[in-house]
Amino acid sequence: xxxxxxxxxxxxxxxxxxxxxxxxxxxxxxxxxxxxxxxxxxxxxxxxxxxxxxxxxxxxxxxxxxxxxxxxxxxxxxxxxxxxxxxxxxxxxxxxxxxxxxxxxxxxxxxxxxxxxxxxxxxxxxxxxxxxxxxxxxxxxxxxxxxxxxxxxxxxxxxxxxxxxxxxxxxxxxxx
Length: 176
What we know:
This protein has helices spanning about 5-25, 25-40, 45-50, 55-65, 90-105, 110-120, 125-135, 140-160, 170. The protein folds into 2 domains: about 5-70; about 90-170, Orthogonal Bundle (Arc Repressor Mutant, subunit A). The chain is mostly helical. Helix 1 (about 5-25) packs antiparallel against helix 2, helix 5 (about 90-105) crosses helix 8 and helix 7 (about 125-135) crosses helix 8. The protein is globular and about 50 Å long.
């Protein structure tokens, strides 16, 4: 039986919003992205539920909406949002500083590099799937990931002198 639009949004809407938040780094932008995507798919909802893979389709739509977002005002702001995650150490101040630093560094990346890193490390998607979501080749995905990680490492090296963040390096990990 097909899930109604309202049922889907109430059961999966928070996941979609959380994904958009990680992608955009701003709660209001995430809400706008999800609202725009859901408004666009609502008129053809019945047909979409028959096709399947609704979660993948909507995540792809959110990524594409994020990449083509016309009102770029939020991209000029410095993001300091805190992404809820498991506590890694007993020192909350160090964890908080590491998250703040990673948000700042991630926000400095070009949109496509940021989208690739979010899809790869937050959504745990393979390069082939990321290429499909972004509408590009796998080699392009790998180039964006490589350049994004390299830039994060350079920026992290520069900022280490000003903020002690031992767990920030764990957040960017190594190349795949």
